[in-house]
């Protein structure tokens, strides 16, 4: 049976609640049991994180986009400084500096094209730590700071125009049915991907590159979709996960003239997560048996960071000191983690709605292996198939312009009352652009 993608398919015990409820259960989070390091100062938590008030290394954010929703709800603008969400204009705290330094830029790690290739990222992912600021920003190899280049590179297209070549806010939605979960026959889930997309021209081809701003997963039953935190228990997508996935890259070999009704049919984008492979053959994706046989012993509750050994094909792609990609439990799944690897692909199949809006269906394929967890209850085999309602998996692009940032994308998707770009259960429920709200 053909499997379909869900970047976080291990929804696991969320199915304990077949219907949503407002009550959450489970013990308080035991950070020591999760292996968080003890600390006396921020220096003890380098290279990632800060020392929180409880004396443990923590990380609220990796870039300012992670802070947007917190700030919006509090009625203030927050930025990410030293892995904490702080009010805009906060100083860097360097008492020895000759003058106060106002936070305007974000430090970054520059990744060489060779490092990107090793991680199965595209070459432009060397700027991944600057995604939050938009497509004008790049990571300086010399200063390791995100710098404003002044212009967006649209390739052979000289500048943004009223056609394809511009920066767009994007929402990709993938609905799936997970089978093999204990106690229940299946769990339906939908994953939401908030992206900042650049469309450029290369060798006469339309190149569509989408940087990840935010990811969220929701359980659903029939037409009822349960936002994060409203189901009895579920796994969530932490920032370390979505900040360390590749840029989505779709190519249209012979793009039609841009006009309402023009078709957008792309080639396939394929991504490997949490593992390394010589060839991207789904049958060759490392499974739990291979992980246990070739990656050595590691205690997820022992407090030591996991490191791959020679011959191990599992990687710590999300850089959290655990194998593969990590999902974190809330509610009835508090303190539980699931580790997985994944190989998936998708294509774009849609059309231009008007000058500023494009949408369509998202055919996709997935194979994923659950390689471990910090609790025996989180270790079992699953299979993910497409949801019977094909119109639940779709994409939407809304033109935002060259200066757009991830914060703009999040603001428009989360717009009160719903915007054209906001999530809907079925793609056909998207309002006409002229009838939709906007928060930009």
Give an overview of the whole structure.
The protein is mostly beta strands and 440 residues long. The chain contains five helices and 21 strands. The protein has helices at residues 68-74, 113-118, 239-242, 288-294, 406-413, and strands at residues 50-51, 57-58, 78-81, 84-87, 137-139, 146-148, 167-179, 186-202, 205-221, 224-226, 233-236, 248-252, 263-265, 269-273, 325-331, 337-346, 349-354, 357-361, 364-373, 383-386, 394-399. Strands 7, 8, 9, 10, 12, 13, 17, 18, 20 and 21 form a ten-stranded antiparallel β-sheet that branches. Strands 11, 14, 15, 16 and 19 form a five-stranded antiparallel β-sheet that branches. Strands 1-2 form a two-stranded antiparallel ribbon. β7 (167-179) and β8 (186-202) form a beta hairpin. It is globular, with a radius of gyration of 21 Å.
Count of DSSP H/I helices: 5
**Total number of beta strands:** 21
H/E element sequence: EEHEEHEEEEEEEHEEEHEEEEEEEH
Largest sheet, strands/sense/barrel: 10 strands, antiparallel
Shape label:
globular
Q: Give the N-terminus to C-terminus distance in angstroms.
A: 43 Å
């Amino acid at each position: 049976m053909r499997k379909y993608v869900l970047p976080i398919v291990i929804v696991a015990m969320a199915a304990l609640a077949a219907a949503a409820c407002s009550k959450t259960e489970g013990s308080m989070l035991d950070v020591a049991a999760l292996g968080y390091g003890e600390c006396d100062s921020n220096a003890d938590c380098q290279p990632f994180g800060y020392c929180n008030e409880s004396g443990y290394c923590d990380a609220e954010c990796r870039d300012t986009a992670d802070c947007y929703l917190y700030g919006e709800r509090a009625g203030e603008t927050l930025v990410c400084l030293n892995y904490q969400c702080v009010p805009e204009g906060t100083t860097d705290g360097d008492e020895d500096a000759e003058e106060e330094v106002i936070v305007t830029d974000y430090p970054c790690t520059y990744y060489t094209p060779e490092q990107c290739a090793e991680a199965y990222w595209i070459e432009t992912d060397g700027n991944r730590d600057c995604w939050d600021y938009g497509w004008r920003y790049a990571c300086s190899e010399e200063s390791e700071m995100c710098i404003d280049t002044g212009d967006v590179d649209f390739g052979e297209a000289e500048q943004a125009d009223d056609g394809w070549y511009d920066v767009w806010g994007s929402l990709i939605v993938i609905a799936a049915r997970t089978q093999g979960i204990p106690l229940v026959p299946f769990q339906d889930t939908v994953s939401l991907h908030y992206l900042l997309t650049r469309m450029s021209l290369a060798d006469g081809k339309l190149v569509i590159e989408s940087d990840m701003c935010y990811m969220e997963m929701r359980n659903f039953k029939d037409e009822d979709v349960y936002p994060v935190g409203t189901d009895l228990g579920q796994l969530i997508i932490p920032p370390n996960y979505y900040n360390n996935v590749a840029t989505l890259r779709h190519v249209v070999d012979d793009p039609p003239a841009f006009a309402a009704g023009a078709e957008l049919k792309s080639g396939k984008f394929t991504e490997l997560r949490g593992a390394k492979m010589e060839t991207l053959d789904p049958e060759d994706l490392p499974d739990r048996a291979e992980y246990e046989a070739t990656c050595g012993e590691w205690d997820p509750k022992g407090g030591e960071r996991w490191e791959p050994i020679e011959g191990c094909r599992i990687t710590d792609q999300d850089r959290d000191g655990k194998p593969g990609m990590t999902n974190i439990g809330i509610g009835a799944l508090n303190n539980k983690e699931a580790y997985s690897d994944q190989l998936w692909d998708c294509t774009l199949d849609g059309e231009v709605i008007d000058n500023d809006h494009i949408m369509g269906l998202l055919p996709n394929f997935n194979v994923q292996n659950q390689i471990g967890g910090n609790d025996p209850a989180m270790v079992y085999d699953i299979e993910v198939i497409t949801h019977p309602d094909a119109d639940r998996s779709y994409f939407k692009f809304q033109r935002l312009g060259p200066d757009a940032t991830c914060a703009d994308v999040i603001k428009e998707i989360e717009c009160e009352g719903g915007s054209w770009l906001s999530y809907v259960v079925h793609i056909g429920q998207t309002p006409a652009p002229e009838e939709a709200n906007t928060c930009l």
